[in-house]
Amino acid sequence: MDRLREKISSIRAEAEAANAKVEEYETKVKTLEQEQMQRDHEIISLTNQNKHLTEDLEAAQEKITQLKSLEDEDDDLKKENDAAQRKITLLEQELESSDKSLRETTKNFREADVKAEHFERKVQQLENLLFEQEKKNEELKTKNHELQAQLDEFNAQLDEI
Fold this sequence. Notes:
Blueprint: H1 2-70, H2 75-160
Helix pairs in contact: 1-2
């Protein structure tokens, strides 16, 4: 009888531990999903920034072309051309930096996505384990009630003797 109670207590402790793990993994999954959402927003932002920088670069390149045709006319145009060249260089550097950041963010997003899938599978495994443990627990409760009924019947027979 004591063994049965110990076993039931042990199974309850295991079920509680499994529930705690499920909650922990669900929290981790939510955190990873939030990180994934943040990275998605960051990717969109960087893509938009990249688009704007590309447009700025194209506009600056058009301006350089115009300035080159007018370069022979005036010395001031040469200075404006130099400024535009510096701006293009800066824009190209920003574009390279944005591209690098976009690649890193995409890589991190993919890693987070893989981790999220891993944790989702782990949560599913733990939920399956919890279901099995609960099923075993119910079976043990049923057996306990049967044994208790048999014990009560046996005690009643002993009392009659």
